Amino acid sequence: MKLSDIRASTVRLAIDIFLRHAYPGASRWRAPVISLDEGESAGDVLPRFDDETESAVGGSTASEGRRACRYVLRLGNSRYPHMKLVLEESILENEYSFAVDTHDDLNVSPESPDYKRWNAVRDHNRRIAEEIEKDWQGEAVPTVADIKELLGQVERITESSRSVLVVDDDPSIRDTLSELLKRAGMRVRTAPHGRAALERVAEEQPDLILMDYQMPEMDGVAACEVLKGNPETKDIPVLLATRSQVDLASLTFADGFLVKPYRQDVLFSLVRKLLA
Questions:
Q1: Sheet strand arrangement including 163-167
Q2: Which CATH class is domain 147-275?
Q3: Is the bond preceding residue 32 a cis peptide, omega within 30 degrees?
Q4: Confidence (pTM)
Q5: What are the tens digits of pLDDT across the range 56-89?
Q6: 42, 7 in Cβ contact below 8 A?
Q7: 17 and 133 Cβ atoms separated by less than 8 Å
């Protein structure tokens, strides 16, 4: 949805739904999160958000072209204070949607005494995020699930039918990327997490893997490490995508890096380079 078409009432609804799931049982919130005038548009409200557009930088591979805009409110939840409500530009220029960033990419070693407790928090955050985004869709709050319907004419990025494996635990993102890449002339397979991705690669090796970083079962970095450690799959280029900053050491296992939200032109530029 265009930013000018998102009203302050939609922003308020998005916030209320977020808080309802993040703090169940709370009948009233302590105070308004931000001041909102019903006559305002989202563009008027954005100065009251934190602007993370400039901070969403993951290295030179992520900085080609204009960065997608990203604005956040750190609302937290009852067990974790850092979860964010996000209003961001989608893969399509000037089309905006709401999202939940669990902001819990901290890499805790399985040997750590806090490993099980940390995974429990991440599972809790993931469930809340899924509930919020499901209710947003039911209340017509724009989410990434709406972007697929807006895909128009897409330029071809390959004349031959090159193949790509799209790996993301969010089905809306997975479906949107799949449709976009198909329209760009590619054969697409999908996987919901790193472990399933390894199974897909064993069945049929793709020409490129577009992999999310944070996923259940096995995250993108761990899956990438396995792929690059196998002589039969080490030469498959992997493009790693994430919503948050990643330790640069993680990039040694990937061939390219994207920070969400990223624009279509940035994605296609990197895909062309990696396929070449």
A1: 187-191, 163-167, 208-212, 238-242, 256-259
A2: alpha beta
A3: no
A4: 0.81
A5: 444 434 444 567 899 999 999 999 999 999 999 9
A6: yes
A7: no
